[in-house]
Amino acid sequence: MDATMRIERILGAALDGAAAGPPGLAAAMHHGVFPRGARVRPRLCLAVAAACGEDDAALADAAASAIELLHCASLIHDDLPCFDDAAIRRGRASVPAAFGAPLAVLAGDALIVLAFEVLASGAVRHPARLAALIGIVARATGTPFGIAAGQAWECEAEIDLGVYHRAKTGALFTAATLAGAVAAGVEGEPWRNFGESLGEAYQVADDIGDCLSNASRLGKPAGQDAARGRPNAVASLGVEGALRLLDRLADAAAAAIPPCPGAAGLRALTRLEANRLLPKNLSRNAA
């Protein structure tokens, strides 16, 4: 079973379990998770676990799926009227647009809780790894360095671009690399720099897309950063400066991969992902 099928299977099972609750809430949760996006973060988690010599597929699946549930929750909250007020996500109506703000708030909250339930259920054979995994995922979700802090920075008058990017986007990438290693039974901390650099690269690519692409290609509104006065790498550095920063971050991520059986494959994947994230008219040939 490939990584995408593994992720979809466990996400589907998790959402099936939530279907016994209020129908509207269950539908809003399902709408926020399916159909799938790129599933970049869970695929990264599984790739790190495999590179480290994964010894329990169920635990790696649970870690990857928990991170994706948190990501989906953050997108639902991001699209709320009090934040981006976005009508589309992944090419169709956002959860707030389709179900209203009250159910969208609850759906995002419920997915956050479900992430920890999935993680706990998947760790039954390795309880010693569970505490570390919960810590990794919780820190990536809250404050001062998680996605909640990243969203909150948008409410501040002054924002440091690097701090904002590391919390808003980098937190779950870092969690994906650390959790993948821990799920495979190895120390997670050596994987921090890889996750942080890759997360920042992803956010820079997202900034470039927000400025230079369009809603039909992105599957979400474009031009949001300029419209809402948020920090953006293109606005700060120009297009060429943002592209150079993306290249530097992708190189830093590849160089930060710790020695492991699958290091060469991860380096190649990192280069391909950095290229894939760019708008098609800017994509470079992958090295």
Name some characteristics of this structure.
single chain, mainly alpha, Farnesyl Diphosphate Synthase, 14 helices, globular
Written account of the structure:
The two termini are 28 Å apart. The longest helix has 23 residues. The chain is an all-alpha fold and 287 residues long. A two-stranded antiparallel sheet has the order 1-2. The mean pLDDT is 92. It has a single domain, classed as Farnesyl Diphosphate Synthase (Orthogonal Bundle). It is globular, with a radius of gyration of 18 Å. Helix 10 packs antiparallel against helix 13. The chain contains 14 helices and 2 strands; from the N terminus they run ααααββαααααααααα.
Short overview:
This protein is mostly helical and 287 residues long.
Total strands: 2
Low-confidence stretches: none
CA-to-CA gap between the ends?
A: 28 Å
Q: What is the total number of structural domains? A: 1
In the CATH scheme, what's the topology name?
Farnesyl Diphosphate Synthase
Largest sheet: 2 strands, antiparallel
CATH architecture: Orthogonal Bundle
In terms of structural class, how would the helical and strand content be classed? mainly alpha
Helical segment count: 14
Using the CA coordinates, give the radius of gyration. Answer: 18 Å
Report strand order across the widest sheet. Answer: 1-2
Reading off the top of the CATH hierarchy, the class is best stated as Mainly Alpha
